[in-house]
Specification:
alpha/beta, Rossmann fold, about 35% helix, elongated
């Protein structure tokens, strides 16, 4: 793998406690998503469904985890520790005051797994074996302790896990202050005020048109499903066009939103940049490195020129990387290998709902007036709304 899309144990060691816990949770989800399995049973700190069972990340899956995943059992608990965990510390962690933690007893009873993740220590095979042995010793006096799978992940093993999901390399690099300029994993690309939690407002009117047949338009849900289907295929090339301010980037973000429609795109495959952010490396070099990893990915280039789109289409053809470019350009001279979708301006009703969602101080009458004036351009409507006190 290229050095630009590389991550090492030293990088993992720079993560703070919170980010390290989040990373392990994201890795578990990414493994399950890549295998097409539900992620609803993967819970970690800060999650609205998190229970205070003493585990930093808990996996309770109804199905067997993916074969190549570092999640070994349907029920798996991860304990994440930044300070180095010597064997003596492991026993104290698992047996505070000399008694085995209740949550570990539960894992034994269901034939689950208990894994300690440590980002400071970098262990040799011998040191790893001594830590696993200490974990085994800590449960040795518990009935049926043989049922429990135990493992120890040092920073090197975590880095290896991250390398199987290239978008999480971007995530780690952004967290430790060593980002690739302008490149982002799945994130709030549209800069909505409440981030990824903001619900996507569905426009009931036909406004997404397949470029191959401009006479027939799809509802937003229908168009989303078409886009998802196409982008789930290796080497696909899709271009999303539309006037400035009609919500193209917000639509792209919705492609990965599991709350909308069916078969949302895998969030852990997303690699996004906006050309106006001056990405380094440039998209052509980044795409080449992404292709070299020989892993599935969705490459999204916002404000992408037609010339760059053509170059990237040729580059991604035959690879495991699918391409989505976004631009206001609505010319017809698009390469034959590309599926083109055109997003029309929003209806006044949707603009009005957007304003009511984001600006609680604006009356319904003012929201309607702004929506009518904006003529379907969300950017204009938001600019007008920001002038009202």
């Amino acid at each position: 793998m290229s050095t630009l899309l590389e991550i090492t144990g030293d990088d993992i060691a720079l993560l703070n406690d919170t980010d390290l816990r989040t990373l392990i949770g994201l890795l578990c989800e990414a493994d399950f998503r890549l295998a097409g399995l539900p992620t609803s049973g993967i819970i970690w700190g800060g999650h609205q469904d998190a229970s205070d069972d003493g585990m930093d990340i808990t996996v309770r899956s109804d199905v067997e985890p993916p074969k190549n995943s570092l999640v070994p059992r349907r029920t798996t608990g991860f304990q994440v520790k930044k300070p180095d965990m010597q064997p003596s510390k492991i026993e104290k962690e698992m047996r505070p005051n000399g008694k085995l933690r209740e949550e570990i007893k539960t894992l034994i009873n269901v034939g689950g797994a208990y894994i300690i993740v440590n980002s400071t220590g970098s262990t040799t095979d011998k040191a790893l074996q001594s830590r696993v042995a200490a974990m085994r010793k800590a449960v040795a006096d518990e009935p049926n302790h043989e049922q429990l799978h135990v493992d120890f992940l040092d920073r090197g093993r975590v880095a290896t896990w991250v390398r199987t999901h290239s978008s999480l390399i971007l995530w780690v690099r952004n967290k430790i202050g060593r980002p690739l300029q302008g490149w982002r994993p799945h994130d709030n690309w549209a800069n909505t005020p409440t981030g990824l939690l903001e619900e996507y407002i569905i426009d009931e009117e036909l406004r997404l048109y397949d470029g191959t047949n401009s006479e027939q338009g799809d509802s937003v849900i229908g168009g989303l499903q078409k886009l998802r289907l196409r982008l789930s295929q290796n080497g696909a090339s899709v271009r999303l066009t539309g006037l400035s301010g009609v919500g193209k980037t917000r639509l792209v973000q919705a492609l990965f939103d599991e709350r909308i429609g069916d078969h949302a795109l895998n969030q852990s495959l997303a690699h996004y940049t906006d050309i106006s952010d001056g990405p380094i490396p440039d998209p052509t070099l980044f795409a080449s490195q992404l292709i070299a990893t020989q892993t599935k990915a969705v490459l999204i280039i916002d404000n992408c020129s037609l010339e760059l789109h053509r170059t990237l289409t040729k580059l991604c053809a035959g690879s495991m990387v699918s391409l989505l470019t976004v631009e206001y350009d609505i010319r017809d001279d698009i390469p034959e290998e590309t599926d083109v979708f055109r997003l029309e301006p929003s209806s006044d009703n949707v603009i009005e709902k957007l304003l009511e969602q984001r600006y609680l101080n604006i009356s319904q009458i003012n929201a309607r007036t702004i929506a009518e004036f904006a003529s379907g351009n969300a950017r204009v409507a938001i600019a007008l709304a920001n002038t009202l006190k």
